Amino acid sequence: MHSYVFIPLIDDESGAWTSFLVNSYRNRDDRLLQVETSQFEKLLTDVVCDDVTEVQIKKRPIGKIIASVRGGPQRD
Q1: Do 72 and 54 contact (CB within 8 A), yes or no?
Q2: What are the tens digits of pLDDT across the range 6-36?
Q3: Position with higher pLDDT, 31 vs 63
Q4: Under a CB-based contact definition with an 8 Å cutoff, are residues 67 and 57 in contact?
Q5: In 3-state terms, what secondary structure has residue 29?
Q6: Is the overall model pTM greater than 0.85, yes or no?
Q7: Fewest CB atoms within 10 A around its CB: which of 17, 33, 36, 54?
Q8: How far is CA 15 from CA 5, 11, 25, 40, 61, in A?
Q9: Domain residue ranges in the chain
Q10: What span, in angstroms and rounded, lies between the C-alpha atoms of 36 and 33?
Q11: Residue 15: helix, strand or coil by DSSP?
Q12: Are 39 and 53 in contact (CB under 8 A)?
C-alpha cells in the first residue's frame, strides 16, 4: 500500500506516537484515514505470527484490488 500522505500524530502530553493519517497515492485527494498505532501493531503481530499458506490478489473491472490470505497460527 502506498500513501501520498503519511502524518504521524503525537500526544502532546506524553510525546507518544498514537496514530497516523494516510490517504490514497492514486487519488491524491483530501480524504484521510486515521490508523491507531495499537491497531497497526496488532495487525503486524498477527502477520508475523501467522503461517501463510496462500495469498490471492485479484483486480476487479472497476479498478478495486481484492487480496485474501489463507493460513493459520504458527505451531511451535
Answers
A1: no
A2: 899 999 999 999 999 988 767 777 788 889 9
A3: 31
A4: yes
A5: coil
A6: no
A7: 54
A8: 21, 5, 28, 18, 45
A9: 3-73
A10: 10
A11: coil
A12: no
